[in-house]
Amino acid sequence: MKLVLLSGGSGKRLWPLSNDVRSKQFLKLIRNGESEPESMVQRVWRQLAANQFEDMAYISTSQSQVDLIYSQLGPDVPLILEPQKRDTFPAIALIASYLHSVKQLGPDEVVTVMPVDSFVEDHFFQKLKGLETVIQQSGADLALMGVKPTYPSTKYGYVIPVQADNESGSFLQVARFTEKPSVETASQLIAQGALWNCGVFAFRLGYMLQELQKKQLPTDYDQLVARYTALPKISFDYEVVEKAKHVVVVPYAGDWKDLGTWNTLTEEMSDSSVGRVHLEESTNTHVINELDLPIVAIGVSDLVVAASPDGILVAAKDKSHKVKDIASDWSQRPMFEERRWGWYHVLQFQKMNEKVEVLTKQLHLHAGKNLSYQYHHFRSEVWMIVEGEGEFVLNDRLMIVKPGDVVEIPVGAKHAIKAISDLDIIEVQMGSKLVEEDIVRLGMDWNDIVEMVSE
């Protein structure tokens, strides 16, 4: 069996800490057993290792999340890259084509996909391993995991089996699906033995390849990548699961939670405040502050306050889910990004005229990390070294930089830097098109870069 974690979603539900680059699964707001902060993706990857999934697990994600994944999990994590974000059906189609044409897996290989941000206990993964046997024994097109509901939620989809669970622990035939019902309907469904759809699907690789052929889509990975922008933006549930002829579900009675809103996420936080916060005489209130300015909250109840360079949220917890709809149409550039080498924070952006933009950033490189050897088509840069020391390359010339040094990088100039110690840089960009995509990379590994410039 191969297990693929889906990590391609955008980050609007936990705005302003999450954005199109830093989705909810990368926020380090929960703690592990040693009381150290960890993200949801770090938690689930740690759980996979503990349950012997290391040799069978992949992460499906977009190019914009690669640096974050490598930063939090290390550079050896197997990735299946989407050219762009297009919902779960295109992502799973690409997964199937990759495992078929790149990894050369046979049609009887069982593939399980699940969200990267499921908040579960370790025994969930033992149940997950059983899906391979369920697929083989049932002959079903698809096998799902269904969580036994603890309350009539209106946020989740429901899987309605042909009959209620007989407590045997075996799979059940699926009769139909209902998506996000009213409280009254959800209560009726639960009485009928309905389960929450937790987004876990297992199938034979051959079944998915047949589905692609029916839809006249290529099963070759490179060919599907070339056509990826033309694929419909639709969920796997709607495009495949609800149309399948034979679907079974495996009931799961353990703890499961989708930490997709501020309300549910704060229920799992051990700290009521993060960052520069003074919280006094308040109940059921959480304040998360990523800004240098202090936040003071006195005598408030049932609130979540979240502040980042992207904005500030103040919301009643039971209404906090509405931020997704408010922020969904905002297309501003992320003001903070975590990268494999460190992070950057946008300090100011100014459009001088139609042809000139100015962007000021603070860059932080962790000791031993480096930027790629690169150049830009549309911008020049000026770097002021604020703290730390580094090795700097400009047009094949290697030099040492330290606090107070200022370096100018003209348009088209090749440059790279490695932090000898933790390195802080103020970067001022000026040009006609200030976008992160304006980077031509010539090398990533520092030893390769040094060898390149010394030739």
Automatic annotation (TrEMBL):
The keyword Plastid does not apply. Residues 4-270 form the Nucleotidyl transferase domain. One of its GO terms (biological process) is polysaccharide metabolic process. It comes from the Bacteria. Signal peptide: none annotated. Pfam families: ManC_GMP_beta-helix, MannoseP_isomer, NTP_transferase. GO terms for molecular function: mannose-1-phosphate guanylyltransferase (GTP) activity. CDD domains: cupin_PMI_typeII_C. InterPro entries: Man6P_isomerase-2_C, ManC/GMP-like_b-helix, Mannose-6P_isomerase_type2, NTP_transferase_dom, Nucleotide-diphossugar_trans, RmlC-like_jellyroll, RmlC_Cupin_sf. Residues 285-326 form the MannoseP isomerase/GMP-like beta-helix domain. Residues 339-442 form the Mannose-6-phosphate isomerase type II C-terminal domain. This is Mannose-1-phosphate guanylyltransferase. It comes from Brevibacillus parabrevis.
